[in-house]
Amino acid sequence: MDYMSIAYAVIVLSAMGLLFGGILSAASKLFAVSSDKKLQKITEALPGANCGGCGYAGCANFAEAVAAGKAKVDGCPTGGPETAKKLSEIMGKNLEEVERLVAHVNCKGGNATKLKFKYIGIKDCVSALNIGGGRIICPYGCIGLGTCARACPFGAISIKGGTAVVDREKCAACTVCISSCPRHLISLVPYDRPVSVGCSSKDKGIITKAYCDSGCIGCKLCEKACPENAVKVENNLARIDSARCTGCKACADACPRHVITVSGKSLQMEEGAENNSKKVM
Amino acid sequence: MSFAQLFSLSIGAILIENFVLVKFFGCCPFLGVSKKPDTALGMGLAVIFVMTTSTAVTHLINEYVLVPLDLVYMKTVAFILVIAALVQFVEMVLMKLMPSLYQALGIYLPLITTNCAVLGAALLAVDKGLNFFQSALFGFSAAVGFTLAIILLSFIRERVGFSDCPKAFEGFPIVLISAALLSIAFMGFQGLKIF
Asked: What CATH number does residue A146 fall under?
């Protein structure tokens, strides 16, 4: 056994390793890029989801923009108030309270809307809309094929009873779903405001009634029920003013068609949807 | 080597002995980074860059260090060392001198450090007894073959994503089946072999 050859191999390889190590450490000094400590701290404080909700390509780009003072410290919708607070501490700026937002689907029609035809094709809302303007008669409503659910990086959207429903706890308000919806049904609402309108139909009540069992008919009962004048019916559609809403839920109780949801849910809708889905199947 | 032989070497590495689909090197990035065509292209370009330089450099190491010292049997270990160091070095140089290129390739470079396709190209080039230029060409061609395969799979995956496949095959299983079918298609290139 030639022990010398083993020792020889070990020595040569160690020498090579040392040489490369030396070159690398020299290179790291020679090619060092001065990185901002502030930038590093900001990057650490961000959630790192790279969702693009801030409008920048990723968390790293947003961090650069914040460090350069180009972006606001509360520009990260995913991190919400907590991240905004951390960033404002790092940047040494005072910050007004940022309220948490969540996505809300302005349609709860689902299986309560009447169908034009049975759609068998690519399970994608954009594709479905290209065929006869979508399978549902309602020109405003949710197609229910889950393009938004697939777009959501946090798995917060699911299709329940034929309509997209947002899980308010999981939602990070990154706005990815808003741009994915071909019917522009999703908007951000304050998390603290319990009531939301689950319809986008601007048609007159009698027309809406003809194609959807749970659409807003513009009856103005909610407007009358609201003690704070926060609910307004414009273009045959109820709107809630977040600034005035106190969350008393009087409008939700008053709505004869259960269009106004409480915390994204309405019991009547879920029961109705189940019955209806059996009929469709 | 004549031009025809060089051409044959190149076509051989790209199509006939495609690194991913025929030799099954580098399956990890092939399946992992092929979700979107953009990222697949970025990964492919990074692999082209690293593979060409690493095959050339490992050829030099083999020719002027390992062969004279009679240590050719240690080439696997030596090449891993060289490739890892080279990728780190290139990353640093790019970060300093070409920030825009670093932005495009940066995230993929560390992934390639220990990629078996890169090591495989270096070892095969030595086994084939290629000279410096031929080694670099072989590494480049093999990486082009890898890029071709990963981009093809990324397009297939985008289409498969929209199709209505059985529940049991959803997600990764259907990707593996697509990759297998793609691999069978590449078997057809076996007939192109000249030399």
From this structure: 3.30.70.20
On chain B, the residues whose CB falls within 8 A of the CB of A13 are 74, 77-78, 81
Of A13, A31, A124, the CB nearest to B92: A31
Q: Give the chain B residue whose CA is nearest to the CA of A19.
A: B85
ipTM of the complex: 0.73
Give the model confidence (pLDDT) of B5-54 as tens digits. 888 888 888 998 898 998 888 888 888 888 888 888 888 888 898 899 99
Same-domain status, A173 and A63:
no
**Tens of pLDDT, residues B123-156:** 999 998 889 999 999 999 999 999 999 999 999 9
- CB atoms inside a 10 Å sphere around CB A65: 17
Which CA distances in Å does A16 have to A266, B73, B76?
70, 16, 14
Residue A26 lies in a domain: no
Query: Is A172 within the bounds of a domain?
Result: yes
Report the distance separating Cα B20 and Cα B183, nearest Å: 8
- E strand or H helix that includes residue A8: helix A3-30
Whether the full predicted model's pTM is greater than 0.90, yes or no, is no
In a domain, A63, yes or no: yes
Closest residue, chain A, to B76 (C-alpha): A13
Identify the residue among B103, B162, B163, B165 best suited for mutation to test binding to A, counting A beta carbons within 10 A and taking the highest: B162
CATH number for the domain harbouring residue A65: 1.10.15.40
CA of B65 to nearest chain A CA: how many angstroms apart?
9
